[in-house]
Each structure stands twice: as C-alpha cells, then as structure tokens.
Design a protein that fits this description.
Low-confidence stretches: none
Strand content: under 5%
Shape: flat
Number of helices: 4
Mean pLDDT: 88
Radius of gyration: 22 Å
Helix content: over 70%
Length: about 130
Amino acid sequence: MSPVVEQGLIQLLYATFLHNSEVIALFLGIVLSLVFLLRKPKRVYVFFLIGFSLLLLRFEYLKHIVDPLQKQTVGVVVSEEGYFRTRRWLDVFFNDLIPLGLYILGWGGIFSGLFLAGERKKGKNGKKTRHS
C-alpha cells in the first residue's frame, strides 16, 4: 500500500472518530453495562444501561429523527387556521422537551446507578461492608 493511501486511510479513520466520538463513548458505556449485567446482574448495571441507552437515543434523535418526525407530524396535525400557534407548540415539543427529557432521564439513570453503587458499599453506620 502506498504512503498516500495509508495517510488517507488514517485521516479517514481519525475524522470518522472525531465526528462520532460521543456515539462511540455512549455505545461503549452500553456494551460495558451489558457485560457487567450479564456477569453479575445488579440494579446498578440496569440503571447504567438505561442511562447510556437514553443518552444514545437522544443523540440519534437530535441528529437523524427529529426533522422527519416533526415534518410528518406538522403535515398531519396543523391546519391553516391555527398554523402558527400549533406549529410553535410542536417545535417546542420536538426540539426542546423530548431532547431535554431524554437528557435528564439518561443522566438520571447514570447518577442513580452511581448513587446506588455508593449506598451498597456503606452499612448502617456509614462504614464500608464486606458484601458489596
């Protein structure tokens, strides 16, 4: 393989990684959660899996789903007389509320898992226990 082709492939892989780094990180979180969940089922790993999955869904929703879904919904729901008000509410719902809800629920799942993991390591008097 020529050096020019090698350099082009390296640049392609690097650009692809930079463009998709958030998706790659979230996907790795999902895979690690699944691996830990299959090895030793615990609620903590379920929370992590749900959290990372919702964050990945939010990313894909904002990147690929929101525009076609919004256009389809506006085309079906909006009539001529209430166009601006209904259109504004649909814009707020699809562009603001759904991504915000997925973000809060995703990070809420991850923080719930972290909180639950921290609580399991402490006993009644606040000291660490053996059964963690």
